[in-house]
Amino acid sequence: MIRTVQDHIWAFDCEWVPDPRAGRLLYKLPEDMPDRDVLTEMWQRNGATPAEPTPFLKTVLCRVISIAAVRRRVRGDEVKIDLLWLPRDPDSTEQQAEASVVGKFLQALGKSKPQLVGYNSRAADLRILVQRAVTLGLAAPEFCHRPDKPWEGVDYFHRDNEWHLDLMEHLSGWGKGGGVALHEIATLSGIPGKFDTDGLQVAPMWLDGHLRDIVRYNCFDALTTYLVWLRMAHFAGHFDDARYECEQDLVRELIMQLSEQPETEFLTRYFEEWERLQMLTGQN
Q1: Can you give the pTM of this predicted structure?
Q2: Could you report the per-residue pLDDT of 171-194, keeping only the tens digit for each?
Q3: Nearest CA-CA partner of 97 in 64, 122, 69
Q4: Segment 35-65, tens digit of pLDDT
Q5: Can you give the C-alpha Rg of the chain in angstroms?
Q6: Which domains are delineated in the chain?
Q7: What are phi and psi of 80, to 5 degrees?
Q8: How far apart are the C-alpha atoms of 169 and 90, rounded to whole Å?
C-alpha cells in the first residue's frame, strides 16, 4: 500500500481523443477527409464492432486535449490545495494546441517535482504524455531527469519509488476480477465517480466543439482521483480519522470557494453529487 505522502502532491487526470492527423498519416487518408470520418475509420481499423463501435486505441494514436490536477502543498502546519487545469481558457485556439497543453504540464511538473498521483496513470495518462511529447518534438529535460539511484531524487519512471503513484495498481492486484475502475472504487466510497459524462462521450463532445465541457469533466476526475488518494492514505495510516476529515473539509472548502466564481461555478454539480453519495453510503 502507499508508503509515502510527500509535502507537494499533484493528483492528475488527462483527457484525449483519437488524433485525426495520426489517422491521415498512418492510414494514408485524404487530407480533406472530415475529422469525424477519420475517427470512424481509425476505430474501424482497430477492431470496431456493432457492440463496441469505438474501441480503445493505442495512446500514441490519440491527442491530449485536457489535463487537470488537484495540487496539495504543506508549508509548516498549513495544508493548501487548489485546482489546476489546461487549457486554462478552452476557447483560446492557442491554448487548445496539444503542444501547449502537454508542454506546459510537463514543464511545470519538471520544475515543481511533486509526488504525482494518478489512476491507471502508468499504463495510460503518463504514457500518453511521454508518447505525444515525443511526436510533438517537445523537450522536457527537468521532467525526464533521473537520479543515479531511485532513492536519490525524484524519478517519475522507476517502479520502485512513489514519485509517481498509480492508485489503480495498488487497488487492483493480480488475477481475474482484480481490475478496479475509478468509478467503482469512488462511488462505493461515497465519492463522485462518472456522472453526467463518461469517457465514451469525450470524442463526440470534442468533435462537436464542446471542449469547455470536457475540461469540466476532467476537473471532476482530478477531484475524484484526489479524494480516492486521501481515502487510501487514510487506510494506510498516513492520516488518522480526525486528520482525514480535515483533509476532506479542505476539498469541500475549495469547491465551495470556486463555485462562487463564474468560471468554476460548474463545481456546484460535483459538490451536490458528493453530498448525495455521502448520504446514500452513510458516510456524511
Answers
A1: 0.96
A2: 987 555 568 999 999 999 999 999
A3: 64
A4: 999 999 999 999 999 999 999 999 999 999 9
A5: 19
A6: 8-281 (3.30.420.10)
A7: -125, 135
A8: 32
